[in-house]
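Q: Give me a backbone?
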Amino acid sequence: MKSLALFGAAGLTLLSAGCVIVDADVDEHRMRYSEDAERFYAADIADNEISIRVAASGCTTKEFFDVDIDHQGGDTFEIEFERERRDFCKMSQPNGEKLTYSFAELGLPDGAKIILKNPVGR
C-alpha cells in the first residue's frame, strides 16, 4: 500500500510538472540589436534615468559616447549608445564604469518607454 501511494505521488508530480523547451538557435531580440553596438556589462532604466555599466580603464566618461535616439511613436524611443572614443588609461576596472543619463538630458519625456539597442551582458 505504501508503494502504491509513492507511485501515485510520483505520477501526480510528473503530471503537474511543466515542460520548458529552449530553442538555442532562435534569438528573438537579435534583430533589435545593432550589429556594431557597444556591449554593456549592465543596464538599468528606472526613475526617468538610464544607467549603463561599460568597459573602462579609468578614463571613460559620458563624453566618450554618442547617443542615437529614434522616436518610435507615442512615448516609445529606441536608444543606442555608440562609443566615440576608446579608453586608453591603465587603471584596472574589472566591473567597468557606471554612467547615468537622465531622460531630461537626453530630451526624453518622463515615463518614456525605452528600447535599448545595445546588447547587455558579459
The chain is about 15% helix and 30% strand.
